[in-house]
């Protein structure tokens, strides 16, 4: 019995032959990682010249805007092409109508300008969802206890327009409202922002792996209920494909699967089916689990980090949003 057509049998076929030397293993390696595979998520906060560690994400901090030029220079020197901004919004700025989300001088928009001024070549990606600005922590506007779709999309379009005019290169709608990709694309075309990309969080599942992130952006204590009426049911893979197909049809340039590692089947299926640039978000809870286990010395942090990142590439992803971006890039460069 041969395993593949025309394949030799043992002992002519000794698969261990190609594993016998490090150089041979490298020669036949199917998947590789490079710093340009990573998008680096950075949490920003108001204030001056400070960083504030996030307890549920060991090793990750929030940074004031004056620290961003330095971080952008680090990204550039490491070969990381893109930074993704997430704002910690002061509780006093959270309202029911979420108007801070599209304020021209909100934290995100100031952060975009500071990075683009300092390092114009470093791409800036944003998050489009109302949760950092919402008094009840939801990604959409809440009326009578419901997250209402169409009014939220109008708000998201204003938010995206403000980010694009601040200089964002990539808009990242993570809200899971219906119709938002088409509405954002129409707005960008009308405003002359033809080259602003949309990386849609198309297959975003309702996951318990986002909790550390919600701490980081100050949304944990405010969230009322859950996000099950808009984020996907973890049980559904066909539905994820329909969401990706829909977003591509509405004008998404790139798509994302989120969370990452427990959803590699979705990444693989998406890449096979659609052949568009596909990203995975290795989310805060995945990062926190790896850190927790490696801090206990149950696993080796560096090895697990690379094994997990490589898994995304093997599953077909073109890139990964990961909190490990600078650490992994530094090791890859050394
Ligand atoms: C905002 C948003 C979330 C994440 C990215 N954008 C949280 C959520 O949907 O509740 C999570 C990222 C992470 O956990 O690292 N909608």
What do you see in this structure?
- This protein has 11 helices and 12 strands.
- The protein is of the alpha/beta class.
- The protein has one domain: TIM Barrel (Alpha-Beta Barrel).
- A hairpin with a 7-residue loop joins strand 2 and strand 3.
- Residues 127, 129, 131, 139, 174, 210, 213-214, 283-284 line the site of ligand PBG.
CATH topology: TIM Barrel
Structural class: alpha/beta
Which percent bin holds the helix content? 25-40%
Shape descriptor reads: globular
Bound heterogens, unique:
ligand PBG
Terminal Cα span: 45 Å
Pattern of helices and strands: HEEEHEHEEEHEHEHHEHEHHEH
List its salient traits.
334 residues, alpha/beta, TIM Barrel, two-stranded antiparallel ribbon, binds ligand PBG
Summarize the structure.
The protein has 334 residues and is of the alpha/beta class.
Layout of helices and strands:
Layout: H1 22-27, E1 38-45, E2 51-53, E3 61-64, H2 68-78, E4 82-87, H3 107-118, E5 123-128, E6 142-143, E7 146-147, H4 149-166, E8 170-173, H5 180-190, E9 197-204, H6 211-216, H7 238-250, E10 254-258, H8 264-274, E11 278-282, H9 284-295, H10 301-314, E12 319-322, H11 325-333
Parallel strand pairs: 1-3, 1-4, 1-12, 4-5, 5-8, 8-9, 9-10, 10-11, 11-12
Antiparallel strand pairs: 2-3, 6-7
Helix pairs in contact: 2-3, 4-5, 7-8
The structure holds ligand PBG.
């Amino acid at each position: 019995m041969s395993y593949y057509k025309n394949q030799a049998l043992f002992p002519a076929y000794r698969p261990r032959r190609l594993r016998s030397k490090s150089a041979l293993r490298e020669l036949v390696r199917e998947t590789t990682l490079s710093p340009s595979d990573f998008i680096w998520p950075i949490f920003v906060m108001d204030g001056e010249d400070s960083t504030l560690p996030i307890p549920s994400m060991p090793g990750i901090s929030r940074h004031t805007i004056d620290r961003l030029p330095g971080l952008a220079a680090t990204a550039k020197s490491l070969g990381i092409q893109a930074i993704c901004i997430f704002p910690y919004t002061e509780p006093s700025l959270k309202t029911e109508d979420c108007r801070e989300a599209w304020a021209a001088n909100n934290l995100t928009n100031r952060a975009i300008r500071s990075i683009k001024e300092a390092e114009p070549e470093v791409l800036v990606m944003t998050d489009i969802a109302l949760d950092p600005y919402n008094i009840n922590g939801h990604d959409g506007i809440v009326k009578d206890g419901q997250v209402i779709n169409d009014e939220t999309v109008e708000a998201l379009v204003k938010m995206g327009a403000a980010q694009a005019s601040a200089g964002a290169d990539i808009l990242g709608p993570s809200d899971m409202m219906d119709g938002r990709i088409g509405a954002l694309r129409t707005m960008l075309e009308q405003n002359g922002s033809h080259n602003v990309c949309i990386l849609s969080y198309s297959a975003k599942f309702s996951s318990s792996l986002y909790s550390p992130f919600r701490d980081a952006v100050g949304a944990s204590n405010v969230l009322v209920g859950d996000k099950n009426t808009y984020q996907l049911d973890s049980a559904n893979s066909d539905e994820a494909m329909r969401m990706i197909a829909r977003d591509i049809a509405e004008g998404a340039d790139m798509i994302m699967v989120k969370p990452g590692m427990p959803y590699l089947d979705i990444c693989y299926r998406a890449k096979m089916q659609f052949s568009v640039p596909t990203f995975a978000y290795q989310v805060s809870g995945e990062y926190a689990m790896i850190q927790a286990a490696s801090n206990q010395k149950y696993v080796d942090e560096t090895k697990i980090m690379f094994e997990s990142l490589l898994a995304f590439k093997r599953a077909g992803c073109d890139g990964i949003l990961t909190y490990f971006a600078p650490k992994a890039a530094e090791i890859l460069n050394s």
